[in-house]
Design brief:
The chain is an alpha/beta fold. The chain has 17 helices and eight strands.
Length: 462
């Protein structure tokens, strides 16, 4: 209800000219007036003026890194005249934390800036993408569009032809959520919903700046097509020319699958605004080519292999967590992760490499979430098991060994605590002060091995 009230008030003249941050630069932390525990990163276009109303894009990161999306959307925001605000508090976890962060973000920006209430947009990455979609559904008619990166709809919400907002999805080729976003794109297409899917080379992450700029260009086009922004013939011509040049460049470089997708998107996006017949014909022509058919077949093959391997590993993990012969299941998981790491490092077979990277990333995140829950519920043995498995996925990550040491310390195993700490330091852990102050290690602070670890850290910092 608070969100509805806040968004309903957008466009009012309650902003204060004296309290505006400097336009044209990313401000990494603006503390909310009504709640000093909440803050956000912000970008105002260099030509921002409170004398007119502006569209705003709210960005929700999975790890409360507000400046990351703001930096990625900065170029598009400057080019097309958008305010971008990224919460420094919203993150994967309890929904109450996310709701409080979004409420504070909306309230503060509404009080500071001249906002166009018809052009409010949500962007999110991973869990933040699902929150952005959920907010758009809850606030039906108040959110004009969603830019969902690295994830799609929440499981509790089904796509609908009458969902009331434009949907721009973005996903990396190595992202384990690639199959989900691809399927969602097809579903939205079948429903006749306003949608677009952008695929980029990368993993489970915010898209690179050019993709974020195209996302803002896309919602700008949709705003003009749907009458919530006055048509601008010059801007339409400019965006049309840029999109055509990008598609033609991809075709010239023989990146035919990417070119086909770009021609198809161009024809759909500018239908009713420009003559798109030639581009629609080009998209249809390329779709029939051997290269594009091969790319689509490979995409399906990778998705099927990913689902099959994930299903097998999830079964092993379930038995390792609560079944008989747990040690055997753990060893099978370790062997599988080692094999997948080798597969991810090879360059001979791209489909197999993609499968391995996606599965490993998926389980890295899953195991990390399980370990966090284990700590909250005092299941230190399970936390240690999940962290040991994480160490097999990314064996050079010092943080996972530090957390593993905490799990063993709480479990009361001094030997494994010290061994894990030594592994963390050898892999780059350098925060000796945090190590000394952490009460988890109280039982081993007097141990000569622990003192040698601290001395080693002091020497490395000198």
């Amino acid at each position: 209800m608070l969100l509805l009230v806040l968004l309903g008030a957008m466009g009012s003249a309650s902003w204060s000219r004296a309290q505006e941050p400097s336009p044209g630069q990313v401000v990494e932390k603006i503390v909310c007036r009504t709640d000093s525990n909440q803050s956000y990163a912000l970008y105002l276009p260099s030509y921002y003026s409170p004398d007119q109303e502006w569209p705003i894009l709210y960005a929700l990161d999975a790890g409360a890194r507000g400046a990351v999306p703001v930096q990625r959307f900065k170029a598009g925001a400057e080019k097309y005249g958008y305010i971008v605000a990224g919460s420094n508090n919203s993150q994967n976890g309890p929904i109450r934390v996310v709701e409080e962060a979004l409420d504070a973000l909306i309230a503060d920006t509404e009080s500071r800036f001249a906002l166009d209430g018809r052009r409010v947009y949500m962007a999110g990455f991973s869990g933040g993408a699902r929150v952005a979609v959920a907010a758009a559904f809850t606030l039906k008619g108040k959110v004009a569009g969603v830019i969902a990166c690295g994830a799609g709809f929440p499981p509790s919400i089904q796509p609908s032809a009458s969902q009331g907002f434009a949907f721009f999805g973005a996903v990396g080729t190595e992202d384990f959520y690639f199959p989900e976003l691809r399927k969602l794109d097809q579903t939205l297409g079948g429903l006749g919903a306003t949608h677009r899917l952008e695929i980029f080379q990368g993993g489970h992450e915010w898209p690179p700046e050019p993709v974020c700029t195209r996302a803002i260009a896309w919602i700008e086009i949709q705003a003009m097509k749907h009458g919530i922004r006055s048509p601008d013939a010059g801007r339409i011509d400019e965006m049309y020319a840029e999109a055509a040049a990008e598609a033609e460049s991809l075709e010239s470089a023989r990146k035919l699958y990417e070119a086909q997708r770009r021609y198809s998107a161009l024809a759909e996006d500018f239908a009713g605004l420009k003559d798109i017949a030639a581009f629609a014909a080009k998209a249809e022509e390329l779709e029939k080519s051997r290269e594009v058919k091969k790319a689509l077949d490979q995409e399906k093959e990778v998705d099927q292999k990913q689902r099959r391997i994930e299903t097998q590993l999830l079964s092993l993990l379930a038995r390792a967590t609560g079944g008989d012969n747990r040690a055997i299941q753990v060893q099978e998981l370790i062997s599988s992760f080692i094999s997948l790491r080798k597969q991810a490092d090879q360059t001979r077979n791209e489909p197999d490499r993609l499968v391995a990277v996606r599965v490993l990333t998926s389980f890295w995140i899953r195991l990390g979430e399980e370990a966090s829950l284990d700590f909250e519920e005092s299941r230190y043995g399970l936390a240690a098991m999940h962290l040991e498995l994480m160490s097999q996925i990314r064996p050079d990550n010092p943080h996972v060994y530090y957390q593993l040491a905490r799990a063993y310390a709480r479990k009361g195993d001094k030997g494994k605590t010290l061994k894990a700490l030594q592994a963390a330091v050898s892999r780059g852990f350098r925060d000796g002060a945090a190590l000394e102050k952490n009460p988890d290690f109280k039982a081993v602070t007097g141990d000569p091995a622990f003192q040698r670890i601290l001395a080693d850290l002091r020497n490395r910092s000198d």
